Amino acid sequence: MEIFFLGTGAGLPAKLRNVTSIALTLLEERGAIWLFDVGEATQHQILHTNLKPRRIEKIFITHLHGDHIYGLPGLLSSRSFQGGESEVTVYGPKGIREFINISLSISQTFLKYPLKIVEVEEGIIFEDSGWIVEARLLEHGIPSYGYRVIEKDRPGVLLADKLAAAGVKPGPIYKKIKNGEAICLEDGRILNPNDFLGQPKKGRIVTILGDTRYCDNAVYLAKDADLLVHEATFAKGEENLAFEYYHSTTSQAAKIALRAKVKQLCITHISARYDRLAWRDLVAEAKEIFVNTDISEDFKVVPIPSK
Ligand SMILES: [Zn+2]
Ligand SMILES: [Zn+2]
Predict the structure, then answer these.
(1) Closest ligand, as measured to the CA of 37
(2) How far apart are CA 221 and CA 205, in angstroms?
(3) Is residue 209 within 8 Å of 227, Cβ to Cβ?
(4) 141 alpha carbon, closest ligand
(5) What is the Cα–Cα distance from 122 to 23, expressed in whole angstroms?
(6) Is 224 known to be catalytic?
(7) Could you tell me the distance, in angstroms and rounded to a whole number, from the CA of residue 298 to the centre of ligand 2?
(8) CA-to-CA distance for 52 and 264, rounded, in angstroms?
(9) CA neighbours within 13 Å on the CB side: how many for 269?
(10) What predicted TM-score, i.e. pTM, was given to this entire model?
(11) What percent of the chain has pLDDT over 90?
């Protein structure tokens, strides 16, 4: 489980930072890649990585500003020619369906795989046996969502040696114990599944937010997260500017991380007005408030280790 930054700039492409796209790689966990936003030329960025477009299973769009969606039609189209046959689901604010359908139909693009589009509202937008994704609105002038990705806790590994030692032969019973069921053996003994399972594996939480002012929903979504990805379009001291343009400063992102008690913060959506040298200052001023802060760069990988 890793975050792979494909684009980390604000507003328009710059030499050092392309516009926003973030891949959450869940290759070991579910053989999938989830994308968050698809700024222009995201597919070009992917060409410089080992990420396979056919692995993209879900795409979460935070909001409909061009720097977050102009790469979407091209990426969806190319995936057909890159071995993509499995279904893709795109989640995004109201309007994303029209944007995709019009782009694909006017350009006479026919996908070779099923495409599902879900226009989200606040709440749980996806859940299966292993994962939950929750969305909440942020403050950005137009609807902008933040996404909280929750990996469910998983039962511990089956202690087969211990079962064998207790005289239980491999068979359907093993599966029942793995699923946490108590078992009554033929000889009358009752097996408590917890005695034959290792420590449950705690799931991880990753929070990826769209563009936003400093707001309480950011804290809600990031609560106790292992990693928070928060925009920081402006430097500390530019709070008025940030407010006026519905963005955040480095110190505001750090304050959210502190309030939400996250483990790690990575700031992104960095304006082109800041050069390489200034990036160091941006991190430093965020660290004054939240120590475990890092700054994104295009092609940077941030691992989210299991607990
Ligand atoms: Zn933006
Ligand atoms: Zn925006």
Answers:
(1) 1
(2) 10
(3) no
(4) 2
(5) 22
(6) no
(7) 18
(8) 27
(9) 28
(10) 0.92
(11) 86
How far does the centroid of ligand 2 lie from the alpha carbon of residue 140, in Å?
7
Give the pair of three-digit tokens for residue 66. Answer: 């061009």
Tell me the three state secondary structure of residue 14.
Answer: coil
183-206 residue pLDDT tens: 888 888 998 988 999 988 899 999
Q: Exactly one of 37, 67, 211, 226 is catalytic; name it.
A: 67
**Minimum-distance ligand to the CA of 64?**
2
Q: Which two tokens stand for residue 261?
A: 């008690």
How far does the centroid of ligand 1 lie from the alpha carbon of residue 223, in Å?
23
Helices (H), the chain: 27-30, 42-47, 66-69, 72-81, 96-106, 160-165, 172-178, 216-222, 239-244, 250-260, 276-287
Q: How far is CA 52 from CA 27, 184, 215, in A?
A: 11, 47, 35
Distances (CA, A) of 96 to 108, 120, 205, 268, 282: 18, 10, 26, 23, 33
Measured between alpha carbons, how far is residue 227 from residues 208, 265, 266 in Å?
A: 8, 6, 7
Return residues with CB closer than 5 A to ligand 2 (ion): 65, 211
Q: In this structure, what token pair is assigned to residue 93?
A: 């604010």
Q: How far is the CA of 139 from the centre of ligand 1 (A)?
A: 13
Segment 126-142 mean pLDDT: 97
How many angstroms does the Cα of residue 183 sit away from the middle of ligand 2? 55
Report the alpha-carbon angle 25-26-30, nearest 5.
150
User: How many angstroms separate the alpha carbon of residue 291 from the centre of ligand 1?
Assistant: 25
Q: Which ligand is nearest to the CA of 93?
A: 2
Which range has the worst mean pLDDT, 36-45, 172-181, 277-286?
Answer: 172-181
Residue 196 Cα to ligand 2 midpoint, Å, equals: 51
Please give the span between the terminal C-alpha atoms of the chain, in angstroms, as a whole number.
Answer: 12
pLDDT beyond 90 at 239: yes
* DSSP codes joined into one string, 101-166: HHHHHHTT---SS-EEEEE--SEEEEE-SSEEEEEEE--SSS--EEEEEEEPPBPPPB-HHHHHHT
